[in-house]
Design brief:
3-stranded antiparallel sheet; alpha+beta; 14% strand; 5 helices
Amino acid sequence: MLTSVDPDVIRALGDPLRLRIVTLLARETLCTTHLVEETGARQTNLSNHMRVLREAGLVETEPCGRYTYYRLKPEVLAGLSGQFAELAAAARTAAGNKRVCP
């Protein structure tokens, strides 16, 4: 069954900085300070982007003293990958279908 792709996740990944953050978090769990160093973003800007990623369900937080660590939720990306695979399979099947104009 063809499922729809979560628009919140797509919107979250559509921003270049957020995509960079997700790429960094795919390699390791990082705190806000590390993400600021790696991306060059200002802390307030980064916090706003992290809020979008959290609300989309892509990352989770782990408080550690005065720092907040961020970890990517791989099951969300795996689900998104599966949804895109379903869309690709449907497109392959439908490649010969053409609706006749009235």
